[in-house]
Amino acid sequence: WEDWITTLEMFFIASGINDTKQKKAFLLYLGGKELQNIHRTQNDESDTYEKAKELLDLYFKPQVNMTFDRNKFYNVHQLENETISAYVTRLRDASRTCNFEHYSPESAIVDNVISKCLSNRLRRRLLREPKLDLKTLLEISFTAESAEQQALELEKQEEHLNKIGHSKDNF
Q: What is the pTM of this model?
């Protein structure tokens, strides 16, 4: 979708098409029946290209999880026989959805916890949060760690009771 819409917008520039109604008509015409049907379900009441594109972007673009995308970025390694130029191109591509222009120390801490924490269960739970901040990470982590400790205590108590029950049978 992103590549197609970029090409369409280059066509608008090359053709000198500036009218928003005309742009919307081209978008729907060139997109074909399937795109027209999708657009129809988006309840677009406006005549503008911008509004139609915005609604279709919401339909076609997957929800971005910056934490997950940054972890993927940090795991991009140079391939054997890959030039630095090619490696940087892959890094640039991987960084597109990372939102590094708004990257803070707190975001770096969140990313590091997720990529390096010992609990795979906690990592999976944290990755379910599309807009995870440090406060939420700490809340989720505290709850998960507390629940783990409580479960271990209950399991120890149950194990102790089972041992007592078995020792009575031996008398």
A: 0.48
